[in-house]
Amino acid sequence: MDRREWLGALGVGGTAAAAAGGDGHGGGAAKPADKHMAAAGGFHHHFCGIHVAKSDPKFQLVAQHYCVLGQDVHQCLLFDSTAAGAKLLGVEYIIPDELYRGLPEAEKRYWHPHTYEVLAGGLIAPGMSKEDEAKFMTAILPTWGKTWHTWPDPKTRVPVGDPLLMWSLGADDQVDPAVVAARDKQFGVDTAAIRAERAKQFGLAVPQVPFPKDLAETGRQWTASGEDKPTKR
Fold first, then answer.
1. For 173, phi and psi rounded to 5 degrees?
2. Is residue 228 a part of any domain in this protein?
3. Domain range holding 158?
4. 62 contact partners, CB below 8 Å, separation of at least 6
5. What are 118-159's pLDDT values in tens digits?
6. Domains in the chain: how many in total?
């Protein structure tokens, strides 16, 4: 998928900009009373995923993403729930594979792949129609995310400790079943059924990539070693 197809699947481009009154951020022309809120006005694209601390794969939690879609970078605010008063966990930036490939090697260690999350059913967009979610997952599949949680443990009353670089699940043996079960119960979904549906949609084997050995190791999308390319089912 080239960049134009990627942006189109995510609803970014001329149509979106026109609906936004030409500024691409939504809501039409800003009124005098709300013109200072324009920067925060577009964070309304919601999806849900499971984040893992790169320094500790046993630390996993569900993160609610509220994103504004851009031409090159999607910017997401991360919360611990969908309820009013939810804790702001941190931020995630999402870029297409072609931009990731051009990053300096030292920078790539901060970016995690989304391939396993999509194909294994861990990433969902519960507010979208089935058709729109399928298009969205097609667009997200090859992307990379850079995620920092500035509220490392949402169980604490206030943010405590150093920010955490977060990662993505990359293989079945990395999954905490309790975290997935709680997420499924909350949204009334079945991760196993979603995985089966996406197997039919994409026709690709679910990657089984080992978790990074340390913070310096870069991610891989499809394979543990050799050429990092997808495998047909």
1. -75, 0
2. no
3. 3-14+42-202
4. 48, 49, 50, 51, 80, 179, 182, 183, 186
5. 999 999 999 999 999 999 999 999 999 999 999 999 999 999
6. 1
Q: Is the dihedral of CA 156, 160, 162, 163 positive or negative?
A: positive
What distance in Å separates the CA atoms of residue 48 and residue 45, rounded to the nearest whole number? 10
Cα–Cα distance for residue pair 137/226, rounded to 1 Å: 26
| pTM, to two decimals | 0.87
Specify whether the CB–CB gap between 103 and 196 falls below 8 A: no
Phi-psi region of 154 (alpha: psi -120 to 50; beta: other; left: phi over 0): alpha
* 219 close to 112: Cβ distance less than 8 angstroms: yes
Any domain includes 52? yes
Residue 209 lies in a domain: no
Which candidate, 140, 142, 162, 141, places its Cα nearest to that of 151?
A: 162
- Is position 229 within any domain? no
- Distances in Å between the Cα of 147 and the Cα atoms of 157, 197, 213 are 22, 27, 18
